Amino acid sequence: MNVLFVYSLSDAPSPPAKPLNVMKEIKEILEEFIDISEIYFEVETITANEKWALAFCQLLEKFNASRETPISFGINVRVVPNKSLKHLSEAFKRAGFNYINLGIESGSERIRNEIMKRIYSNEDLIRTCDEAHEAGLQINAYNMIGLPGETPEDFKMTIEVNRRCRPESNNLSIFFPYPGTELYQHCLERGLNVQLKEESIERYKPVLGLPEFPDKLVSHYFRWFEWYVYKHKKPLFKILSFALLRFLGAHPHLFHLYRLLTFSGPAAALKQRIRSFSWTILKPSYR
């Protein structure tokens, strides 16, 4: 599968391009690169202009209907406070979108609102996910752990919200304070000892030494997040593989060895067979 990534639609600094102009550019690209089978739109704020988004979806639907082999789409979606995205989710599906990427970030409204400046409620999150699922879209969620001021109780809320949102896949990262960002400055103002480690393990190991959320506990929840969210819902092999990969990610030399052993040869073939077996035979419904 060859995927085209689009990084600008309706959230550019200048007025948004007209849907017809964007559609024209997509057609031109597909004429040149005929092996593209999926297009992913990295445009989180598309939900802020629903009229534009619905018009764009109508064009994509018409375009796909004219093709012998339709293009599949994915998109980054931001939750809008107190607003239903039901019609937009249905339009996404009709246009050929298979999935959305959604930032849950934290299940603690205090952390999400005060620290991450994402001003929407857990009910907003759950409603948006329910509407996406009802439309037939899959959800790939993004979460963080180890944020400044976060406690174990806050992260237990993240687990609970993910269980209620029911994303088909999940990405969890340990917070990393990039120099020059507002959150990096926030950490310094709180007197946190920011220990920037080698780049190869950023987001795999805690770096703040939070007094209210010990590093060992952050690492534990990071490795076993899938277990807490998906136990009895996904194959045990899948859950354990995530735990292993997150452990290896915090140890670059072990991860390099893992890649050497499993990305080619008999070990790679065995890994693929096990993965296929786990999804075709063992996979239960998470809905």
Can you give a write-up of this model?
With 287 residues, the chain is an alpha/beta fold. Helix content is 49%, strand content 14%. It contains twelve helices and six strands. The chain has helices spanning 19-32, 50-65, 86-95, 109-115, 122-134, 152-165, 182-189, 215-223, 225-230, 236-249, 252-262, 265-282; strands at residues 2-6, 36-41, 72-77, 97-105, 138-145, 169-174. β5, α6 (152-165) and β6 (169-174) form a beta-alpha-beta unit. The longest helix has 18 residues, at 265-282. The two termini are 27 Å apart. Residues 10-14 and 277-285 have low confidence and may be disordered.
SSE layout and pairing:
Layout: E1 2-6, H1 19-32, E2 36-41, H2 50-65, E3 72-77, H3 86-95, E4 97-105, H4 109-115, H5 122-134, E5 138-145, H6 152-165, E6 169-174, H7 182-189, H8 215-223, H9 225-230, H10 236-249, H11 252-262, H12 265-282
Parallel strand pairs: 1-2, 2-3, 3-4, 4-5, 5-6
In short:
Helix content is 49%, strand content 14%. The chain has twelve helices and six strands.
Strand order of the largest sheet: 1-2-3-4-5-6
Global outline: globular
Cα-based radius of gyration, to the nearest Å: 20 Å
Give the strand tally. 6
In this structure, how is the largest beta sheet organized?
Answer: 6 strands, parallel
Distance between the termini: 27 Å
Tally of individual helices: 12
Q: Determine the strand fraction and express it as a percent band.
A: 5-15%
Unreliable stretches (pLDDT < 50, length at least 5) are: 10-14, 277-285
Secondary-structure element series: EHEHEHEHHEHEHHHHHH
Task: Give the overall pLDDT as a whole number.
Answer: 86
Helical fraction equals 40-55%
Structural class: alpha/beta
